[in-house]
Amino acid sequence: MRTIATLKKGERAIIKEFSVDVVPLKLLEMGCLPGNEVALVQTAPFQDPLYLNINGSYLAIRKETAAQIEIEIIL
Amino acid sequence: MARQINVALIGNPNTGKTSVFNRLTGLNQKVGNYPGITVEKKQGVCKLDRGLKGHILDLPGTYSLNASSLDENVVIELLLNKNDKDFPDVAVVVSEVENLKRNLLLFTQIKDLGIPTILAVNMADRMKRKAISLDVEALEAKLETKIVLVSSRKNTGFDALKNAITNYGHLSTKPCVNASVIAPEYFDRLRKAFPKQELYKLWLVITQDVNFGKLDRNELKGVASFQTESKSNLKRLQQKETILRYQFINGVLKETLTIDTENAKDLRSRLDRVLTHKVWGYLIFFGILMLIFQAIFDWSSYPMDFIDSSFASLSEWTKNTMPPGDFTNLIAEGIIPGLGGIVIFIPQIAFLFLFISILEESGYMSRVVFLMDRIMRRFGLSGKSVVPLISGTACAIPAIMATRNIENWKERLITILVTPFTTCSARLPVYLIIIALVIPEGRVLGIFSYQGLTLMLLYLLGFGTAILSAYLLDRILKIKSKTFFVVEMPNYKLPMPKNVIITVIEKTKSFVLGAGKIILAISIILWVLASYGPGTFNEAETIVRQESASLNLSEEEIDTRIASYKLEHSYIGITGKFIEPAVQPLGYDWKIGIAIVSSFAAREVFVGTLATIYSVGSEEEETIKNRMAAEVNPILGTPLFNFASGVSLLLFYAFAMQCMSTLAIVRRETNSWKWPMWQLFAMTVIAYVVALGAYQILK
User: Per the UniProt record, which residue ranges are transmembrane (chain A) (predicted)?
Assistant: First the structure.
């Protein structure tokens, strides 16, 4: 099972359905929704947090949150 | 008389909403607070048309109408309360061309409230460079509203925007999305229970505890029964709503917006590679911090010296010009030195806000958050704590307010509790004057001055203590809260001078006025207490003359003796003598004791108090520094401000919670007296013990 936390640079992935209680609403509002595309832009020093491009929006989240969101690699 | 309409500017953070506001209102704006809370309220006036003025309200940035912070809640409260005097006739949603998709979420929510909503697409000047094309007419048809392309940088599109605002009456108020499809049955029950209310508005009321105006509350009696739906169920529905809205938005933009992604590899990725690099990133951040401190310590010392001596001359001039008497003395010895103690801050505060606003505007601050999060988390803080800790070097009050965007309550509380350790600008005058008195001039290796290094050490001490106590608090506090962290990484932008200047002016003004009132009041009280006294105070002259009759003193020396006798027997002298035993082990005399007690209101009062105490009864024009240097320890006969007592004072001010306003703001932000009282107690004990230790070792 792949999650955003395992995403590598250059990979593109689609966010899978996730359980409501693990992903905060705020993240959804910023475009982190099932079916949307996600790519890793950069990891911070010490590999955390992750700098992502989700659905055209650039945002950074911590690895522990990223590990809750399952993805499917498309490229 | 001109007709006036209410216009609300709403938008996501980082869309340049405030620059649009600045373009519309120019300098016709004022910044205040929403009643009862510390959220900044920015409003201004814009001339729209003949006989029509727009009252423009710049609402806090938010990603949606589902509030998760005090700032965001302000937006919702206003939009749900038709009786609010600021309720908008028309809303302008400011969006940014590159993040249109995300920005539209908020747009659809506002439009669904039945408010005429104009969409302003900012940064339109970037479209060509970014290979973005937007079919404005098609999008207008789909969203059923007016869309205006603007560029606050190039100052284009604002006439069109004003035009659109003027003609807001023609806008459709039809909703974009029918939210009730997320739970048809539930919404049906709602509609039946409150047939007169707009359905979407009801839904927002139920999902967030908003404070309604009285009238609405009566109408909405019984709304509570609809909250019985379990909380997680409501949350699920909110998620469903968000997904539904994005479906609508994706559909709409698919046909109207094209972005050539090949062109996207640009400034952002090139700058990010350097600025968030594991070596260069930290070095650059450190370099910027050094630059900020250089500006505060070094560059601002010139205007500060000038202000200091100007106020001394002004006081002297007043004394010589106005008719002698109590009133003149009050002005020359109480008010003018007191005011000087505030005005002297302006250069430093302005520099600090200048840097902070440039860092924020450019988009660099988010990179610092990203870069520092992992490190800060080790100490129980968040990457977002960096901004409060840096702002804390200006003033703890805005710094504590800046913690609002920290999602995790425990991290936020710890940040609030440790921020007052950072060296705020109110400590600076105290530090600067004491350093000048007790640290010798001279340079290490011919470059770094001892005095500058001492100041640097004090700053490091402040940061170090903040970090260390955060680490301890993280272990001690048993608070469970979900860890969660999200930060938007905005595009890099060249800061617009106009925005930066307005921010600097506004922040400096509100700081000076806010602190000014307290300092002025305290200066007057102190002057009165120092100029009057009970019992023998009034016979000072007779007593001193009798005592010194045999000493053969000149008239001048006798005057000095009278003045000091008066001061000692005034109300303030009596109080000071009373607390002297408590401060003596720290190396201070009663005058410093009084200055410490009165500076509990605000640290900078320390210098002002000493200035007031020393000016009372003194004839010549003198700077505060010279007066302090002349003070003699009554017991030892050596200069009062020597190395040991000076270091002790520096350390006392480094740790002590000497600021009433900070306590008040902590009370507000944590919603209890428990935390500020705890903070006050702990910081005072640390300060006293450390200062005591330092003096006893060094003396």
Answer: none
Strand partners, B448: B444
Q: Tell me: is residue B17 an annotated ligand-binding position.
A: yes
Which parts of B136-282 are beta strand (E)? 147-149, 257-259
Cβ distance of B276 and A51 shorter than 8 Å: yes
A25 and B276 within 8 Å at the Cβ level: the answer is no
Q: If you measure CA to CA, which chain A residue comes closest to B99?
A: A57
* B486 touches A at CB < 8 Å: yes
Q: Does A67 touch chain B (CB under 8 A)?
A: no
Contact map slice: B 508-567 vs A, CB within 8 A? none
User: Residue A55: which domain range?
Assistant: 4-73
Q: Please tell me the total count of domains within chain A.
A: 1
Instruction: Enumerate the domain spans of chain B.
Output: 3-262, 516-698
Q: Dihedral angle at the C-alpha atoms of B132, B109, B157, B147, nearest 10 degrees?
A: 70
The CATH number given to whatever domain includes residue A35 is: 2.30.30.90
Residue B591, token pair as written in the block: 């005058």
Query: A1 in contact with B at a CB cutoff of 8 Å?
Result: no
**CATH homologous superfamily of domain B3-262?**
P-loop containing nucleotide triphosphate hydrolases (3.40.50.300)
Do residues B609 and B620 make contact, with C-beta atoms less than 8 angstroms apart?
no
Chains A, B: CB contacts within 8 A come to: 114
Note the ipTM here: 0.94
Contacts of B303 (CB under 8 A, 6+ apart): B346, B347
Q: What are B415-441's pLDDT values in tens digits?
A: 999 999 998 878 887 888 888 888 888
CA B422 – CA B578 distance, rounded (Å): 32
pLDDT tens figures, B95-142: 988 888 899 999 999 999 889 999 999 988 888 877 888 898 999 999
B556 annotated to bind ligand = no
Asked if B276 has any chain A CB less than 8 Å from its own CB, the reply is: yes
Give yes or no for residue B216 having a pLDDT over 60: no
Residue B278 touches partner A, C-beta closer than 8 Å: yes
DSSP percent split of chain B into helix, strand, coil, nearest 5: 65, 10, 25
